[in-house]
Amino acid sequence: MFELEYCSNPEIGELHSSGIKFDYQYDVEFDSKLKTLDKFLFLVDMHTIIDSCAKDFLEITIDDFDEFWKINKRLLNFVNAVYGYKEYVNSYEPSLKSITEKYYNMKKWYRFLCDFRNYIIHQSIIIKDYRPSDGDVFINIEEVVSLLSEYDYPNDRYRRNAEEFTKWLECFKDDSLEIKDDIFLSMKNVTSLVVDEMSQMKNDVLLYAYRKSIQPSIEWLIKQIPIIDGKFQYVFVVDKGNLPESVRETNYAMEDFVRRMIKSLGVESVICKELFTVLSEKKYDYFYDGNCDLEDFINRSK
After folding, report:
1. End-to-end Cα separation, the chain, in angstroms
2. Which of 57, 103, 105, 197 registers the highest number of CB atoms within 10 A of its CB?
């Protein structure tokens, strides 16, 4: 059996028994809540990774054309980060497809970059057009359309999808540059547009995931913590027959998540505001990580 013990100061560790016991399924439920929090943290991290890869690509310039691989490296990092995000959210629970597919089906820049990976990079079409004056890099739309039409596709479905992408690619001529009768699409401009579009998606995705899975998990964790003399105690849930592996620290799990959200998203983010609202409603106003109130905890976590 798991037993709930508590103290008012975990650094001193004078534990008291609450008399509350749980069956051996408790650790499964507790660990599932932590897994939910970890998945959300990774979702947040993926947006940070995308922004970082975009910044690296937008800032790259080269003095020697033999170093063009550096441009491709940063472009591929950005493209694969976006496509990896697409794959991650498609398998996320609770399902985020209703949001992400809305953006994908808009056939704008997020969709373009995902298809760019599938129908341009996979066909080994080389990006080689560079403008030294500002470090921009381009794809030649008409050359890409021609090469895609000549590619030997493994099946009809893949060919049809590529043909659809080719037709759609023609629509981007209005966003392109005409240089010596060729039509070029600026990949640095595309990158900026993708980042703008994904920043809108980020708010929708994170808020939906928060309300569906994170808020219930935070409320469940707080519910496990006893209040003594008007103050939430510090909790250890332990199976004394299996120490130290079977110790679960409820306050630490919850407070660490709040701290990382403040650090990653900022106090003005909609997620942090929602978190602060839940903590206030539950009157969780003392943080053992720092031995401080919510306001000081926020300032320490920035």
Report:
1. 39
2. 57
